[in-house]
Amino acid sequence: MAIPLTLYTLVSLPFVVALLIAVSGTHQRSLHAGLAAAGSAIGFALIVSVAGRVTGGEILAVTTPWVPAIGLDISLMIDPLGLMFAGLILGIGLLVMIFSHFYLGKGEATARFYASLMLFQGAMLGIVISGNVLMLLIFWELTSLSSFLLIGFWQHKAEARQGARMALAITGGGGLVLIAGMLLLGITAGSFDLLTILQSGDVIQASPLYPVILVLILIGCFTKSAQFPFHFWLPHAMAAPTPVSAYLHSATMVKAGVFLLARLWPVLSGTDLYTIIVTSVGLITMTFGAWVALFRHDLKSILAYSTISQLGLLVMLLGFSIKMAAVAAVFHIINHAAFKAALFMSAGIVDHETGTRDIRRLGGLAKVMPVTAIIVTLAAAAMAGLPPLGGFISKEMMLDETLEVGLFGLPWLVPVIATIAATLSVGYSLRLAVHLFFGSARDPEPYARAHDPGFGMWASPALLVIIAVLLGFAPMLLAGPLVVSVASAVIGGEAPEPGLALWHGVNLALGMSLFAVAIGVLLLWRHGPLLRWYEAMRHLDAKSLFQSTLTSADTVVRKLIVATHSPSLQRMLLATFAVIVLLIIEGALTGGGSFTGTRAGLAASPVAIGAWLLLIAATGAVIYAERQRFIALIYISVIGLIIALAFVHLSAPDLALTQISVEVVTILLLLLALNLMPKKPPVLSSAPQRWRDALLAITGGLGVGGAAWAMLTRNPNDPISSYHLAKSYSGGGGTNVVNVTLVDFRAFDTLGEIIVLGIAGLAIFALLDTTSRGAAGARLRSWQEDMPHSPERHPVMFVMSTRILLPLVLAAGIYIFLRGHNEPGGGFIAALVVAIAFLLQYLASGFDWTDARRRVGEHFMIAFGVLVAMATGLGSLVFGANFLASAFDYYTLPLVGEFELATALLFDIGVFAVVFGAVMMALQQLSHIAQRAARAHAAQLDADGEEGSP
Amino acid sequence: MRRVIPHPGLSVLLVIFWLLMANSLSFGGLLIGIIIGIVLPIFTAPFWPGRPNVRHRAGFVYLAIVLWDIVTANFEVAAIILFKRNRHLKPAWLVIPIELTSPEAITVLAGTISLTPGTVSSDVSSCGNYLLVHALDSPEPEADIARIKTRYEARLKKVFA
Amino acid sequence: MTLEFLVASAIGVLTAGGIYMILRGRTFQVVLGLTLFSYAVNLFLFASGRLTVNRPPIWSKTVTEYADPLPQALVLTAIVITFGMTAFAVVLALRSFLETGSDQVDGDIAPCDANAKNTKAER
Amino acid sequence: MSLTAHLAIAPVVIPALAAPIALLVMRRRRHLGIGLSFASCALMLVAALVLLNASADGTIRTYELGDWPAPFGIVLVVDRLSAIMLTLAASLSLIAMIHAVLTRADRKGWHFHPLFQFQMLGLNGAFLTGDLFNLFVFFEVLLIASYGLMLHGQGPVRLKAGVQYVIVNIVGSSLFLIALGLLYALTGTLNMADMGLRVAEIGPDDQGLLRVAALLLVSVFALKAAVVPLHLWLPRTYAVTTPAVAALFAIMTKVGVYSIIRVVPQVFGDGAGAAAWAPAPYLLPAAIITTIVGFAGVFVARTLSEQAAYAIIGSTGTLLIAVAGWQVETLTAALYYLVHSTLAGAALFLVADVVARRRASFGNSASPGPAFAQRQLAGLLFMAAAIAATGLPPLSGFIGKLLILESVAGLPGWGWSWAAILASTLIGVIGFARTGSVIFWKDADHKNAEHKDAGHQDAGHNDAGHRDEAEPVIALRRDMIAPVIAIALLTALSVGAGWATAYAGEAAAQILDNNATVRAVLGEG
Amino acid sequence: MTALPLIAEIVTSLMIIIGAGFALIGSWGLVRLPTLMERLHGPTKATTLGLGGMLIGSMLYFQLFEGRWSAHELLITLFLFITAPISANMIAKVHLHDLRDRRVPITKGPAGAPPKAPGESDWATYEAPHPKSAARTSEE
Amino acid sequence: MIEYAVIFGFVCLTLALALNLWRLLKGPSIGDRIVALDTMVINAIATIVLIGIAQASDTFFEAALLLAMVGFIGTVAYCKFMLRGDIIE
Ligand code: NA
Ligand code: NA
User: Is residue F77 part of a domain?
Assistant: First the structure.
């Protein structure tokens, strides 16, 4: 197979298999396991197939550009380091898949399980064979996500959910920090290509950003590899099914941090900062983990802490920045993967067969579970670093290297602590084997049930233990070339000859090792008293610390968010106005320039001053009478009237017309609504609030008024409207420039504007049509008129006058419509006038009377109007012109004389129809609500009654 | 003809209205005015059930009298506002029995009373046979009632015969 | 006293009145406030064409000076749009009052809080 | 002139015809109306894609409405940015429409389809216009339609929220007009390209006024974009809205962002004197705070729809962090992330609905309820949407965030930007993990299961007695189609990230190249 | 303008002055008259003669000074003749309603409370018009 | 001479509007306020007509006409509200 194909197949196979499993149905246990195992096996075979070339010094790489903008390529690369990890991931993966099949019960959701597991496998594989660090980051976060799913697999268990979330928070969060670090790394190196970065060690270490990069990346690695103080998620991840723990939380995922440390070793290591941080974190973790492991009772918890400890060991070794230590680390990675996965699977077996993982309830199981006992004992021996197993060799190498490192200027510090950690390791390892399998049964119940599992279940751990044993007997043969080539890849140069052998002669390391074993045995012997002493101590529970931190963060943030975001319109508006006012002030101060411009003012006439006084007084009156809503409304109409007068005075006849007619309709709307609302609500805001609002209002008023003053006292800047004035008659066929602007120059605006009105009409209809139902209907039915009312509904004078007014006002409306193009008026104003003519009938003769005489529905009017306007616009396309282009011409008829026909008039018909429809819709829907609601309710009751009867 | 122009008076009114709106006399304008004068009464007919027939000559006489009364009465009321002290004012409620039967006629009468200053039509009785009028200064209410009945109501009866 | 001053100060007063009313916390007052505010805004937009007396933008061969027609067209559009918005706001204010029995713009249960009583942070 | 020359107007014409026709046919022939509405969305997408393709070569197409020359008439401008926005809007509309129809949400009140089409009309118009006042008009179109849609289905909470939403936006629109007035008074024009030229000639005496106008205008856009502290209107509004509508609303805040991207470089660019890049110093801090506040909201929110609403705020903040850089690279990142975050937000709302529809009275609140139909599948959808919303791999959010992080690196305040983006991602992840694990993993104990009180009900649901209230228990997965499409689009956006970022990059370059726009709009002169 | 007959100028000015004067007098009446019913007479002045004078002035002005025949001012008069009585009537009804039904503290005014309508009926403000009465309209 | 008449007219109308305002604010009854508003509308019509004379323009005629046509609706609606609450029933 060609290399690119191999690599792409390798990385995509697990995902494809995951997908296959996910869609293969829920009750296909064996198929799921089979697919997963086959996928892993094929992957493993692919790895094996390229192993020779890779260990031979060839780097297999393939790159396809993906997002060049950020330097993210689909880049895969297998070098010996990647090869080793890929082999572990796929090899152990295969064993785990097989083991899982026997481990998982009948009712388990195997599809989800294997799909997630394969998802993880793909992600993990991606990390180790990424050739681009951004790719690596993607896979990195994917492992966190899949691990979240796997830890939470038994979703009904609270500890599973919590463990999953905690793992996600820590490893995912660490991943985010890693992103920052990697991005900085790539930016500093000038590329995100891994090989380029690996060759840029000097540049990076010389960069002022190096400490930042280092710390960020280390946090990413430490969180993933459960290094102190981020270790606490790992024990809680043990809520996952045991195969998951074996796979993710011992052999692979937790090694991702170690992998990345190794991967970036040439780039990051070698500085004092690196050595100090990494070594001490590793050292602390190694010791701490081992210490805690000694006192745990849950088998998986023991193994989890032992994993933490072993990971600390690896981190420490990589932290030494010594080549030989790196070699030791590589060898120990292999050892640890073998014995730890075996131990986890065995723990699963014990759990499976005895129903408990509590070491205090187990004991003497060797008699009933001899095979398991052998496996565990051998694996534990490897973990303890006892000869003749592989663990012994790597521990010797480790102890040997500690002698080379001085930390904080103390040459003895690292060796002494490392020896202590080794001692503790011996202690918990021996305890695991001895307390489980030897001595007497502490609890008869699990003992009675216990027996060895079938071959399928113990085959996988057995194989792993055999490897662990062989790694001790024939390390050079089995692992030598691999370790050398991997170590060379880590170091980025020639690795020193590891000299893997059980016997290196009598040296200090051997002494330390012997000491560790001796004291370790002692620890086991005196475990009881030690445990009582340990349990008497107060322990900081990282989980509850994490939980309580999260809870209190949640509480505090929630309080803050709820306090600030409780839906308060007043707060929203205060914020808005405050921001605006501040920005106006800022803009004016920063921008500079004078407040008053140079434009000469117009002298105010007495009537203007009078009207101004009226307006100010009426505005004040509105504020004063604020809660007496009806009176405030009367004052508002005075303001509207004055503004209409102002438009007249200031040469804006169209605006005056619009203002007058809109005002009338608005008042009717407000009165209709006010009828059903409180007329004089109680005071709501306190005096300080009112002062605060008044202050803001005055500032806002000063700002906007000031801006208006500044604007008005400046000369215009050659406005585009001179074109409109010049072209109105010649190009638009009308002398009323405002109208020509509306229906021609800016007809597109007008189209939007009528659509706004049309939508308002529809939305109002939608809003009010439901008023007879639910709470509103009930409230309306029980509504008590809050004012004494006159019994007369339709005063005769009013009614009769409106009947003569109707044709007259309609005629006026038609007139205003027709001449709008040349004189003040137009479709909009005409529509309002006509609407008002009909509203008068509603007002005088009542809803039912008038509604019965209505011929065209408002919905139709709105739709028709929009369509007419659109058709006018599209009509011009037929003539090869752009949308909404107008045409007009003058015609002469005998007797009639010259007259003009303009498409703009057609457009105005559309405007008319929409505006009329919308206005009528709004007012009609709003009127007579209570009575209509009652009627609708009665009709509903009738309908229900009929339905009920046969 | 009746079908096309059911209410010639209204139609003429609309034509005049249209010409006044246009504020000019042109054939084109007249044409549109006539169209409107024909169409609008038909279109609005449902909104005015039982449009009464009006005697036009009587109507014009009535209109002339009312206009004259408006002018003269205005001066009287202006004098009252300007020169008469509140305590010398003799406002009164006038209850005017009416014989008109159509709501249109009652409305015109009430409107006339309101337009001629010094009196405001305030209400109609629920049976429709009395008009409540407020007079600004009416030392002799009976005389005012009689004046209204003879001067306006009697003439209106002829208009809305 | 110039017309410019009258208009500018009127805009200022209407804005202040509008803002104050909008901050009152009951739907009807808020709608009245919006009406005041929109008067101010329409005047402001109108004023962007500067003030002109006795020169309405009705084109004629003999006239050379006109008021700026563009802001007038814009204000017309704005008035129409504001009308639509106000109408909707009024109806919504009423509808909301009928549904909830309160005309206050605030002080309602937040869905946030309504659900909170059933939802404790998981332990 | 061939019909293709009129293509620019198509995104406006299509919904403007579809809406009234749907309004007319809907009462009698409901399916015809729905079909029309669908067809309109599909046609809009086709038109948008054609424009997207046509703009790829860098041509800026203009369309002078009524054949009035710019700057005197209104002109539509189709450049890459417009094309991207149009395509996004049309895609989103199809998703929202599918969901609304399949879940029958469109039947829970009047006029859903006409309002929906009008909403699209407003959006498309806003994305196309080159005229500032016309932008205002289309803002109003999309707002009034959004009021109608937001209240679709009604119920007390929605009405109460609607009051606030409407009033805040009316105030915002008024402020828009004030800014417009100032700008017209100073420049004498409304055409954005022309305005960009004219601001450069404004004298020193008028600089203060110009800056006021610039700040005012941008703060109106910021209000629409829900930038802290102008964001308070959003959480409840979006959380209580009909989910299909909320999904469409995911693009509403982006309209504000779009306007900032469109207007600031063109009008308040380098030549604008005191107003040059006027909002820039405030944009970055505001964006950073918005990001944090948004995801803090995700962290503490107790319902999925609320989380989605806060996620919208947070993603807008993130987006604006990039915008605030005003470089080709940062705008590239912004545009890519804009598209992503819109789809992601929509996906969240839709998934929230999928959940709410299956959990009866438990709605989408993060409280353990009984197991429900297709729980695993729903959970998977939720996970995908949450991954997208927080910006985790493998979906496009991750690429978007990488783009932003890389592009802002080295710019002033970039450390804060990085910290905000990464920290907000983490708190978002924790928040989503919590609600997700409760809803999809945790089973109610018996005490909780019996405790179904009314306050529990998802606010978005109708009050009792509404005609469509009593729907049968969901057995079909049809309501999962829309979210799946949204997630598929996000996947496509990841896979095609190379192409997408390249297009965004060219769009960004075009945005910052004022001369090109001026040449296209105002001619060579 | 010098070519114009002085008399035209005088008449026009007079009409304007009369119109404005009556408007002022009507508004003054609104302020000084004792209660609502009396005040209601004030606006009818402004309506009829005040505005009428102004409109005649306007017609004359355009006729005499601008040389345009202008009569559309008559339309304003027409509308006011129709609408002013309605306004007055409705306001009077509000007053009557206030007096008897609303029990708001209101001075009855020099004319006192209105007398009850003779016979069986009451005023329409207090009693819905009888089914066959001319005062009853628009009921279906 | 007409100029003086117009100025006199403006002064009268301004005073008239001010008097209307006084009544509007003073009340005391709602009816009084409505009368004041109604009168104000009529005075506004007169003002518009006078502006037309002063500017020798009939551009504003429509405004005056419209006010005459629809200005009373406010008055009537306010009254109807006081009488019946529901203005369209
Ligand atoms: Na317009
Ligand atoms: Na009147």
Answer: yes
User: φ, ψ for residue C8 (rounded to 5)?
Assistant: -60, -45
Q: Cβ of F37 under 8 Å from any chain E Cβ?
A: no
> How far out from the chain centre does Cα B85 lie?
31
Query: In this predicted structure, what is the pLDDT of residue D445?
Result: 62
Measuring CA to CA, which residue among D344, D328, D248 is closest to residue D294? D344
Cβ of E75 and B21 within 8 Å? yes
Strands A888-893 and A72-78: unpaired
Predicted TM-score of the model (pTM): 0.94
Q: What is the identity of the amino acid at C101?
A: G
Q: For residue D191, what are the β-bridge partners? A: D131
- What's residue A261's pLDDT? 94
Please state, in angstroms and rounded to a whole number, the distance separating the CA atoms of residues B54 and B8.
Answer: 10
Max mean pLDDT range (A242-246, A433-437, A638-642): A638-642
Residue of A nearest to D371 (CA): A156
Interface of F with A in 3-22 (CB under 8 A): 7, 10-11, 13-15, 17-18, 21
Query: What structural domains and CATH numbers belong to chain B?
Result: 8-47 (no CATH), 56-159 (3.30.70)
- For residue F53, tell me if it sits in a domain: yes
Residue F89 lies in a domain: no
**What percent of the residues of chain F are helix, what percent strand, and what percent coil, each to the nearest 5?**
85, 0, 15
Is the model's pLDDT at C14 over the cut of 70? yes
Q: Which ligand has an atom closest to residue F37 CA? A: 2
Asked if D211 and D275 touch (Cβ cutoff 8 Å), the reply is yes
Cβ atoms A733, C60 nearer than 8 A: no
| Interface contact A792-E125, CB threshold 8 A | yes
Spacing, Cα F68 to ligand 2 middle (Å): 8
F20/E58 touch (CB, cutoff 8 Å), yes or no = no
Q: What is the CA radius of gyration of chain B?
A: 19
Residue A27: Cβ within 10 Å count: 10
How far away, in angstroms, is A835 Cα from ligand 1 center? 21
Which CATH number does the domain housing residue F17 bear?
A: 1.10.287
Per-residue model confidence (pLDDT) at position C28? 93
Phi-psi region of D350 (alpha: psi -120 to 50; beta: other; left: phi over 0): alpha
Q: Which of residues 26-65 of B touch E (CB under 8 A)?
A: none
Any idea what DSSP says for residue A891? E
CA A33 to each of CA A104, A111, A112, F23: distance values in angstroms, whole numbers, following the listed order: 10, 9, 11, 92
Query: Which ligand sits closest to the CA of E26?
Result: 2
A chain contacts of residue F26, beta-carbon cutoff 8 Å? none
Chain F residues 17-76 with CB within 8 Å of chain A: 17-18, 21, 24-25, 30, 33-34, 37, 40-41, 44, 47-48, 51, 59-60, 62-63, 65-67, 69-71, 73-74, 76
pLDDT of B116 higher than 70: yes
For chain F, how many structural domains are there in total?
1
**Residues whose CB falls within 8 Å of the CB of residue A209, separated by 6 or more in sequence, listed in order:** A184, A188
Residue F49 lies in a domain: yes
Chain D residue with Cα closest to C98: D156
- DSSP type of residue D71: T
ipTM above 0.85, yes or no: yes
| Sequence-separated (6 or more) residues with CB below 8 Å from residue A105 | none
- The residues, any chain, with a CB within 8 Å of residue A457's CB and separated by 6 or more, are A99, A102, A103, A345, A349, A352
Higher pLDDT, A438 or E45: A438
Beta strands in D37-89 (DSSP E): 61-64, 75-78
Helix (H) or strand (E) holding A203: helix A201-206
- Record the tokens describing residue A313, joined without a space: 């060991």
- pLDDT for D482-521, tens place per residue? 999 999 999 999 999 999 999 999 999 999 999 999 999 9
Q: Range of F73's domain?
A: 2-84
